[in-house]
Amino acid sequence: MTFDVTAEDAGVRLDKFLAAPGRLGSRGKAADAITKGKVYLNEGEATMADASQLLSAGDQIRLWMDRPGSARRRPAPTRGADLDVVFEDHAIVVVNKPAGLLTVPLERRSEAPSVEEMLDVRFRAQGKKPPLVVHRIDRDTSGIVLFARNPRAQQRLKDQFRRHEPDRIYWAVLYGVPQPPVGTWRDHMVWDATALIQKETHPNDPRAAEAVAEYRVLDTWGHLSLVEVKLHTGKRNQIRLQARLRGHMLVGEQRYTYGPDDLRPIEFPRQALHARRLSFEHPDSGARLTFEAPLPDDMAALIAHLRDGHRL
Questions:
Q1: Relative to the CA of 31, which of 103, 172, 248, 254 has its CA 20 to 30 Å away?
Q2: How far apart are alpha carbons 169 and 303 in whole angstroms?
Q3: Cα–Cα distances in Å, from 212 out to 166, 194, 236, 241?
Q4: 164, 232 Cβ separation under 8 angstroms
Q5: pLDDT in tens, 232-266
Q6: CB neighbours (10 Å) of residue 261?
Q7: H, E, C per residue of the chain
Q8: Pairing assessment for the beta strands 273-281 and 142-148 based on DSSP bridges
Q9: Is residue 187 flagged as an active site residue?
Q10: pLDDT of 159 higher than 70
Q11: Which residue is catalytic, options 59, 120, 138, 187?
Q12: How far apart are CA 178 and CA 224, in angstroms?
């Protein structure tokens, strides 16, 4: 459950806000939820030290009531040590996420494990506060994701993403070969919260969000190609839809599907999309950092077979 603080609730203590009818209903339940780490204030985990914090209009509060330790348990992730942590310091954590793992938990998939939960387990076992998510990639997309170690670092990093300053480089295997081989995709999109898909829309649509990405073709194999995409904006499912709009469905795509009648899809268990490289400024030092994730085994095998002239 997520609540947005309105002007009417501005100045109310966090625990009192949670105790209101229609939320948790009592101060005791509010305190219990905060103690068990089930309350997030502006995406940072709230502690009892935050219970008396006065809220401001625009604050966002999320209740994760089925977090492990609650009455309705979901399987707690136990493999936090198995995560591929590329880099960690006092301010950031960089993870190479495998395909099939959520970046953060979804209420509609409460049983599915996530990087955030696994980091939570790992850091709590070390007596540390769990990291805070900065950005995310799709469940079936592999590659680099970034977390912050404290709310200040998280906010500074999120500000960079909001200004589109980080370099976000993806590799994708597509049907067809984009023309020209180097260019820019510009579209306007709107998220359909019912269908849970991104849709193309008109620039004059008041809901429209501009989506911009540069691309370049790295390799081709007949009617297939390996394409590098640099995001200028980071809309949900952006690359998958922008490629589809130009007739270049991703190999393995299950949601944004399209193809000519004679297209013989390659069997691949997920969309062939990998968050290859991420560059950004360190939230404290300001130094420019770059992290790269090698292709995972499934995409590396796919590309190797295509280069050898075989089909999977």
A1: 103
A2: 18
A3: 14, 24, 12, 12
A4: yes
A5: 999 999 999 999 999 999 999 999 987 655 567 78
A6: 4
A7: CEEECCHHHCCCEHHHHHHCCCCCCCHHHHHHHHHCCCEEECCEECCHHHCCCECCCCCEEEECCCCCCCCCCCCCCCCHHHCEEEEECCCEEEEEECCCCECCCECCECCCCEHHHHHHHHHHHCCCCCCEECCCCCCCCEEEEEEECCHHHHHHHHHHHHCCCCEEEEEEEEECCCCCCEEEEEEEEEEECCCCEEEECCCCCCCCEEEEEEEEEEEEECCEEEEEEEECCCCCCHHHHHHHHCCCCECCCCCCCCCCCCCCCCCCCCCCEEEEEEEEECCCCCCEEEEECCCCHHHHHHHHHHHCCCCC
A8: parallel
A9: no
A10: yes
A11: 138
A12: 10
Residue type, 60: Q
Residue ranges and CATH numbers for the domains of the chain are 2-63 (3.10.290.10), 80-162 (3.30.2350.10), 167-307 (3.30.2350.10)
> The tokens of 141 are what?
């997309």
For the ranges 23-37, 57-71, 224-238, the lowest mean pLDDT is seen at 57-71
**φ/ψ of residue 21, rounded to 5:** -55, 140
Which amino acid, residue 186? Answer: R
CA nearest to 210, candidates 182, 238, 240: 238
